[in-house]
Specification:
five-stranded antiparallel sheet; about 425 residues; Methylamine Dehydrogenase, Chain H; about 50% strand; 34 strands; 2 domains; mainly beta; Type 1 dockerin domain
Length: about 425
């Protein structure tokens, strides 16, 4: 290992230089097989050391599972899911929710068993005359959320909520906007713990849009209840992410074609929220208009961007970039960017990003009949200060205690990405000791 200087941005107020012992290497391809039209990378999620990717294998749609080991990500299981492609997947505590494209059932549920992952339930469409075109899946500890087209309302989508009832997955609630003129409701959703966030944004070229923002719902005694709409700028909500303590949303100051777009964060305080700061840069221009594939976890935000408005709209851009941003005290600190490897410029690099197993997983779904693929890179290589676990801007004894607490396990304290927290991670931490 060697030390070099990485340029990082303190968004909101300052610009600074931070040292790093990590050299950013090339992303490596996760997928051993990606058939034409597989769309691998569109349906992607990670939980701890387990990853799942939607696939098309030998002409059939399936979910391929991986486990992270000291050697690498190793494929462990393939589960066929039928004749419809998975467009979005989400891990819960002990299950995987899958949204399926097209008409019919909304999705399926996979659960682990002694022989591997198996399909255990179908998520029934509660009203086939009303709901279709299932798109996004999110999951909390004991619930699955799937967004879908609502044919009874122009522009408005809905979120179908499924929970275990007496051991069986059942539809328990439909979340739809009460007023959404010229507004796309549920264009993006995310969930964690007892919180669901539904993104709503104005429709391009449609005047009169009056509803937008990150709509927050909390689990109540009988159903998920609306709490508040987090709004900023002239519009926001096209992309959202949450981790039960923080909500992040894309925002725009002067309309959806503006070059002054940014990400806003809110910190949870019980059932209320306070501003947690903005992430923006005039250097990015149009690219932050598409902060797709956002995920926030352990004080780290990952997302993909592109630098051309119309290129992003048509998925033809050849310059997509993935970023991580790390909470540092009251600021967000940008890490080192990750660019698409040579030969994959036509893929949607960064349309999905997930963190787990000490890795940053980057989905690159296929377009125009090409092959989709998933890439991975050690997460620590992308962060400005990997060993600052508590986000206070300093690597100190508190962070050392985090490594000791996680000793022998895996997760965020696994700095070198070898799937185990041990003495090697202590040595990495010592290299970072002091202020970030």
């Amino acid at each position: 290992m060697y030390t070099h200087t990485m340029r990082v941005f303190f968004f909101i107020l300052t610009l600074t230089i931070a040292p790093s012992v990590f050299a950013v290497g090339e992303v490596t391809q996760l997928e051993p097989v990606a058939e034409t039209g597989s769309y691998a990378g569109q349906a992607l999620d990670v939980l701890g050391n387990t990853a799942a990717v939607g696939h098309k294998i030998d002409g059939s749609y399936a979910i391929r599972f991986y486990e992270h080991t000291p050697q690498d990500w190793i494929p462990t299981d393939v589960v066929e899911i039928g004749t419809r492609r998975s467009v979005s997947i989400a891990f819960g505590e002990d299950f995987l929710g899958v949204a399926l494209i097209g008409s019919g059932i909304a999705g399926v549920v996979l659960e682990p068993s002694k022989t591997g992952w198996t399909v255990t339930s179908e998520l029934q469409n509660p009203d086939t005359s009303r709901f279709n075109s299932f798109g996004l899946a999110a999951a909390s500890d004991q619930a699955i959320f799937i967004s879908c087209n609502d044919t009874t309302e122009q522009y408005r989508d809905a979120v179908l909520v499924y929970e275990r009832v007496e051991g069986k997955w059942q539809h328990v609630q439909t979340i739809a906007p009460w007023s959404a003129s010229c507004t796309l409701f549920a264009e993006d959703i995310d969930a964690a713990g007892d919180m669901l966030v539904v993104g709503a944004t104005r429709v391009l070229g449609c005047s009169g849009g009056n509803v937008y923002g990150a709509y927050v719902y909390f689990r109540g005694e009988e159903q998920w209840e609306f709490s508040t709409a987090l709004q900023d700028g002239d519009t926001n909500g096209k992309w959202v992410a949450c981790d039960n303590e923080t909500v992040v949303s894309w925002c725009s100051i002067s309309g959806p074609n503006s070059t002054f777009d940014y990400l806003e964060s809110w910190n949870r305080n019980g059932s209320s929220f306070v501003s947690g700061g903005s992430i923006y840069s005039g250097d990015w221009g149009y690219d932050i208009y598409f902060p797709e594939g956002m995920q926030i976890d352990n004080g780290i935000l990952s997302f993909g961007t592109c630098d051309s408005f119309w290129g992003c709209q048509t998925n033809t851009t050849t310059n997509r970039t993935v970023y991580t941003a790390q909470r540092n005290g009251n600021f967000w600190q940008l890490g080192t960017s990750v660019i698409a490897p040579s030969g994959y410029g036509s893929a949607g690099f960064g349309r999905n990003t997930k963190m787990g197993g000490g890795s940053l997983m980057i989905g690159a779904p296929a377009y125009s009949g090409s092959q989709g693929v998933v890439f991975q890179i050690p997460l620590a290589q992308t962060l400005a200060c990997p060993a600052d676990f508590d986000g206070n801007g300093t690597v100190d004894v508190t962070d050392m205690l985090r490594i000791i607490s996680d000793w022998g396990g895996a997760g965020r304290a696994d700095l070198n990405g070898d799937s185990v927290v041990n003495v090697t991670d202590v040595l990495y931490l010592l290299d970072y000791w002091g202020d970030c």
